[in-house]
UniProtKB/TrEMBL annotation:
Top-level division of the source organism's lineage: Eukaryota
Molecular-function GO term, any one: ATP binding
Catalysis: reaction(s): N(6)-D-ribulosyl-L-lysyl-[protein] + ATP = N(6)-(3-O-phospho-D-ribulosyl)-L-lysyl-[protein] + ADP + H(+); N(6)-(D-psicosyl)-L-lysyl-[protein] + ATP = N(6)-(3-O-phospho-D-psicosyl)-L-lysyl-[protein] + ADP + H(+)
GO BP field: fructosamine metabolic process
EC number: 2.7.1.172
Gene: Fn3k
Protein name, entry field: protein-ribulosamine 3-kinase
Length: 309
């Protein structure tokens, strides 16, 4: 494996440093190379390349907005026995602490970036596509993303759609519940979902939703800081409703109230926010049920019942 890394990175030095660590999905290791330190994620599953390519595209998309710092993605490399490696810039990170409200502002800027691009295009009128370099973001007028991404190890369909409630219902909730049905055949989940599905459109009655570039998996384990400011990583990007991002951030702790107040000073809560927040939390509970098993069944069904009240 190290031989492949040396060849692919065109480096004469390749020296592992620090202990190898890993999340639930992949293993990780830092290496010294000729051109500085890199971090390598390793996954032996057959779908690893697809997963890492989605992550690489996500990091590039966030980078192009110039709003919040992410590790520089370098390369996805196939492993000979199946699986893949993902090489990125190594950043020495510590727990988010000092820069919590700064991150709140930057996530709001990330979410507002596409809207601002749209406003700029309308001002400039018909100059679309003239002199636009590939290093800049392109305006997205629909919900989705140009490639599949994975939330955890579950691949997500990001086909472009112009209606957010239908995109979210079909490609997020329904897709996850189809997996529950396949693995557990849970009758109660099926019955609650058949009722809830019909109520989703009315939660979006009075609001205008401009597609926002989302990190897609913004829990405390995917944010950090260094001396220069906040850093986010492990994204599963798509253009969606900015409120979607806040559900997981509020669910499992790790974000101080200063994060949320800084965010909402730039993007105030729209009417109906709390109910939609529950709907977005539902996605995360089902995703956790799919990843970690029936320990999340109770929370999933509870949220469904609350949403039906």
């Amino acid at each position: 494996m190290e031989k492949i890394l040396k060849t692919e990175l065109k480096t004469s030095i390749l020296k592992a440093f620090g202990s190898s660590g890993g999340g639930y999905i992949s293993q990780g290791q830092g290496y010294e190379t000729d051109s500085g330190r890199v971090f390598v994620k390793i996954n032996h599953k057959p779908q690893a390349r697809k997963m890492f390519e989605g992550e690489m595209a996500s990091l590039e998309a966030i980078q192009k907005t110039n709003t919040v710092r992410v590790p520089q993605p370098i390369k996805v490399i196939d492993l000979p026995g199946g699986g893949a490696m993902f090489v990125m810039e190594y950043l020495k990170m510590k727990h988010l602490n000092k820069y919590s409200s700064k991150l709140g502002e930057q996530i709001a800027d990330l979410h507002l970036h596409n809207q601002k691009l749209g406003e700029k295009l309308r001002k400039e009128g018909s100059t679309i596509g003239k002199g636009v370099g590939r290093s800049e973001s392109q305006y997205a007028d629909k919900f989705g993303f140009h490639t599949a991404t994975c939330c955890g190890y579950i691949p997500q369909v990001n086909e472009w759609q112009s209606d957010w409630p239908s995109f979210f219902t079909r490609h997020r909730l329904q897709a996850q519940l189809d997996l529950i049905e396949k693995d557990y055949g849970d009758r109660e989940a099926r019955e609650l979902w058949s009722q809830l599905k019909l109520k989703i459109p009315e939660m979006f009655c009075d609001i205008e939703i401009v597609p926002a570039l989302l990190h897609g998996d913004l829990w405390a384990g995917n944010v950090a800081e260094d001396d220069s400011g906040p850093i986010i990583f492990d994204p599963a990007c798509f253009y969606g409703h900015s409120e979607f991002e806040l559900a997981i951030a509020g669910m499992f702790g790790g974000f101080s109230s200063s994060f949320f107040s800084a965010y909402h000073s730039k993007i105030p809560k729209a009417p109906g926010f709390e109910k939609r927040n529950k709907l977005y939390q539902l996605f995360n509970y089902i995703n956790h049920w799919n990843h970690f098993g029936t320990g999340y069944r109770g929370s999933t069904l509870n949220v469904m019942r609350k949403l039906l009240k």
